[in-house]
Specification:
The protein has 419 residues and is of the alpha/beta class. The strands form 2 sheets. Strands 1, 2, 3, 6, 7, 8, 9, 10 and 11 form a 9-stranded mixed β-sheet that branches. Strands 4-5 form a two-stranded antiparallel ribbon. The radius of gyration is 21 Å and the shape is globular.
Amino acid sequence: MRHRSWVSVLLLLTATACSSGGAAQDGKTELTIATFNEFGYEELLKEYEAAHSDVKITQRKTGQGEPHHKNLFTKLGAGSGLADIEAVEEGFLSQVLSKAGQFNDLKEIGPQVEEGRWLKWKYDSATKDGKLIGYGTDIGPLAMCYRKDLLEKAGLPSSPDAVKSLFATWDSYFAAGDQFIAKSGGVAWFDSAAQVFNAMHNQHEVGYFDKSDKLVVETNPAIKADWTAVTGAVAKGQSAKLAAWSNEWNTGFKNGAFATKTCPSWMLGVIEKQAGPENAGKWAVTEAFPNGGGNWGGSFLTVPKQSKNAKKAAELAAWLTAPEQQIKAFKSKGTFPSQVKALTDPALLDSSNAYFGDIKAGALFAAQAQKVTAAQYKGPTDGQLQDTVFSAALLSVEQGKGADDAWKTALSEAQKVAK
């Protein structure tokens, strides 16, 4: 989902060279947990230690996901060095499931948890041959964010209710984009072709791979249809042509370089950070999302068989993913819960976001989460296909390469990555 440096990878590998948890010097059981980005666990881990005097927890935290997962698979291959609990992002989950024999079945070693704790599609996505490999943490239900002032300037409706017709379908979204750029004075409709394409792609029941891990890009007409629609919008000038997570993309939020943004729940924090206080109140979010919504993002907690304290690690992972703790993590870092009870918690439903006009964002994204009926199956190299192959190919179109030639390049690179 984000580009990473090899320096970060090397630093992470060095930092995590030690083995997983064991007996600490003071006689306590030492547990290690490896996470990336922001899970909101800092205070929760302290709370757990306070309630379990026999446990000492060390969190290995890296700022980004790619080096974390590279370390995970390197240590799996080496047979040692993993944390007792390893976080796994959805784009890398299928690679973990393909190595399910190296992870504990949490239904066997973990504490009994209430049936239906998680949204069914979240729970199902972490199961393999009846074994539960990961406890679900957060999710990324999709909505649409947009600049009210820029839409108004272009003569388009701007209230969350009034824009629903603009964002009803992808056809209406791109048609609105044509109207917008005709009067926007050079402002783009969306930030990046890849960001729109990824959101469209995540809505499909079948993505890059089928459930037998066969690459189906060429035989899945939905992917080519998405490609045609997005590159067609690029050709009409709707894209700001900003590579996601680049300095230019970050600055684009602040400078008002584009009017709309596909918004998984975690994107609100990104927009607020990058757009800055001077743009507070200009951004809005609506539950209207083309073709009904979807999910983009979310992670799981796994317990590798390398763990020397797997049972206690599973107990910690189960506690961290309980509804009560997920609400606390949401309050801390905005990680959106995947637990059914948490989605009806008043603390979530009553939460508002001042930056986005005091909208009740918790209730909005809880409703969006309920619209997702099944998680798209992610193949072994799904994350690479999204982050490198198709994102790079779409960026090349934005930089002037023909859409047909870029599609052929993407297909060729996809075959290489899938081997």
